[in-house]
Amino acid sequence: MSVTPTTPETVVVLSGGLSHERDVSLRSGRRVALALRSRGIEVVESDVDSSLVPLLASLPGAVVFPVLHGEAGEDGALREVLSLLGVPFVGSIGSACRIAFDKAIATTVVAEAGIATPTQVALPHEIFRELGAQTLMASLADQIGFPMMVKPSRGGSALGASKVNGPDELPSAMVGAYAYGSVAVIEEFVAGTEVTVTVADRGDGPAALPAVEIRPESGVYDYTSRYTAGATRFLCPAEIEESVAQACAELALTVHDVLGLRDLSRTDLIITPDGRPTFLEVNVAPGMTETSAVPLAVEAGGWSLGRMCADLVRVAARRGGRVPAGPVA
C-alpha cells in the first residue's frame, strides 16, 4: 500500500527539450499527462524554454514531473535548477543523475558494488583521433573481442549504438557513436535474454516491478525496435524462472540504491545462459510511450500508470523542494 500525502494543486509535466530524443520525450510526456488527468489531477504541459521559470513562479505549490530524455533531461542539470528554485519534482537529484547518465561512470560504480557488468572501455574522441584510430581499434579487438557493442557514453534510446561483429564494422560504429557524443563506450557483447526492470518508490520504499522481456524482431533492440509499434515483442512478466526473476529484481534494486536514485528508475540487463543477470545501463527518466516497457511493468504489477504517476507526485509534494544537504557518495 502506497503512502498518500497531499495532492498538489497542479503538476507540470516537462517534455520535449532539444536532445535527439525530443520526439520520444513528447510522446512520453503526453502519456504521463493523460495518466495524471485520469486521476483527477490538474496538469500543465510544458517544454523546456525561456517560459519555464516564469511558469513555475506563477504556480506556487506545483510539482514538476520531468519526462525529458537524453542529455538535457537526464544529465542532472535541469534537476539542479529545480532544486535551486525550491520546486519539488519527481525523480532523482542532479548529482545522482550525472552518475547514472554516463554509462562509463555508472558501470564502474555498479561493478564496485559486486554486480556483473560487461568488460568496458571508454574512449574520448580526441584520444581516439590523436593516438591513432587504427592502433586503438586493433587493441579494442584484442581486449574486448567480437562481437562487441559500441555506443555513446551519454545518451539514450540506443541512438548511436551498434553491435559490431567484426573489425570491418568497427570504424563506422565508432563514427556513429561519436556522432552522438564526445566519448564512446566499447564493451563486450553479452549474449542472453534481454530484460528490463522498473523500480518505483510510491512512498513505502523502492519496489521492483515484474521484469519485461524484450524480443526485437531484428535481433537488436535499437531505436527503430524501441519506438516502432510491432517491431519488438514484449513479454511481461518475462518468461524466466522465478529464481532468476528474483535475482533481476535484486540487481535493479541494488543499482537504484548504489547510484543514489529515487522515485523511479529502469535498469536494463542481460540474463546469460547460466542464469546470471548482467547490468547494461540504467535510466533515470524511462520512456512512457505506448511501446515503452515501464507502463507494461506497471500493469503487470497490478497498478495503473495513472495511479503510479499520481503516487510519485504525492511523494514529491510531501518531500518538498528542499535541496539535499550534500552530494551522492
Description:
This protein has 329 residues and is an alpha+beta fold. The strands form 3 sheets. Strands 8, 9, 10, 11, 12 and 13 form a 6-stranded antiparallel β-sheet that branches. A 4-stranded antiparallel β-sheet has the order 4-7-5-6, sandwiched between helices. Strands 2-1-3 form a 3-stranded parallel β-sheet. The model is unreliable at 1-5 and 325-329 (pLDDT under 50). It has helices at 22-37, 52-57, 71-74, 77-85, 94-101, 103-112, 125-130, 133-143, 170-178, 223-227, 242-258, 293-300, 305-319, and strands at residues 10-14, 42-46, 63-66, 120-124, 148-152, 162-164, 183-188, 193-200, 207-208, 212-216, 232-235, 264-271, 277-283. The two termini are 30 Å apart. A hairpin with a 5-residue loop joins strand 12 (264-271) and strand 13 (277-283). Helix 1 crosses helix 13 (305-319). It comes from Microlunatus aurantiacus.
